[in-house]
């Protein structure tokens, strides 16, 4: 891609759009698991309850200007807020660089934004809100429907449907095995629903890849935290599975073709 000024301005605009959606994701991450309204009331400081002014609510930039503290009570603001905004900004940018201004860009970014929100919620609360999973599944099927319509080919829609069923089905079997055989909840039903969402985007093979690679990532992270926390059993650490499944799903959405060809030895 040739870089010119026009292209650079476009990329900056997309990055800033991503930052502001990241700011909205912060609201979702904080309020959705607490069953608070997403739209009302406007943001306040959780400490002194002062309403946050619009100029103190500019993604990343306000955090830097306020030196990471509330304007009124000087309580430190978690570095996670600008981090979520930044990751979301980068997500918008890489979606654009991969897909250009297309329908794929919109859905890829929607997928990434959902994965960011549910990963942080799962990390904090060990739950994945149904709203995110169901809307995600619906969006994945709509996306596949659009592709099928454009290509005049039913395959994208069939693969999307299969992805949801295979992904959720496979994970449900593992869930059931843990529950019945080992008498523990090894993973949550939220993870099962998440795989329906991810599968609807990445298809049946992508769903299996997501479960396999997500497990590898989760295992590596568990070993790391076991060593760090000096724990003897990683089940006790209660590390959620969702963020690792989400990351594996994102990797497949962006590099799926390469992974598929590598596995099946195609060209
Ligand atoms: Zn305050």
Helical run tally:
9
How do the SSEs run, as a string of H and E? Answer: HHHHHHHHH
Return the CATH class of the largest domain. Answer: Mainly Alpha
The percent range for strand residues is: under 5%
Mean pLDDT: 92
Question: What small molecules does this complex bind?
Answer: zinc ion
Q: Please describe the biggest sheet, giving its number of strands, its sense, and whether it closes into a barrel.
A: none
Straight-line distance between termini = 24 Å
Q: Judging by the overall fold, what is the CATH architecture of the largest domain?
A: Up-down Bundle
Parts with pLDDT < 50 across at least 5 consecutive residues: none
Number of strands: 0
Keywords:
globular; 0% strand; 267 residues; 72% helix; Four Helix Bundle (Hemerythrin (Met), subunit A); binds zinc ion; mainly alpha
Explain what this protein looks like in three dimensions:
This protein is mostly helical. It has two domains: 1-98, no CATH class; 102-267, Four Helix Bundle (Hemerythrin (Met), subunit A) (Up-down Bundle), CATH 1.20.120. The mean pLDDT is 92. The protein is globular. It has helices spanning 5-31, 61-65, 80-99, 103-125, 130-151, 155-181, 189-229, 234-237, 242-264. Bound molecules: zinc ion. Residues 45, 47-48, 50, 70, 72-73, 75 line the site of zinc ion.
